[in-house]
Specification:
69 residues; mainly alpha; 3 helices; 77% helix
Length: 69
């Protein structure tokens, strides 16, 4: 069973990823769809709470910086 901090990271970044995916689908934007999928999937492959938060933070920053202006 995952520790509470890891479980919280899974829920947090999965929710952000779902929001990015839905936004990308509704606006037909390719980048948010891909980053959203990555945010939803990566917690299944990353072990360690610190690494999980680090990867999630990097992906969230990428989502912010790669947005269409």
């Amino acid at each position: 069973m995952p520790e509470p901090a890891s479980l919280f990271a899974m829920i947090l970044f999965g929710s952000i990823g779902m929001g990015a995916f839905v936004y990308g689908k509704s606006t037909s934007a390719f980048k948010p769809i891909i980053i959203g999928i990555l945010l939803m999937v990566y917690p299944y492959f990353v072990e360690g709470t610190t690494l999980m938060y680090g990867v999630g933070a990097v992906l969230c920053v990428a989502l912010f910086l790669m947005r269409e202006k």
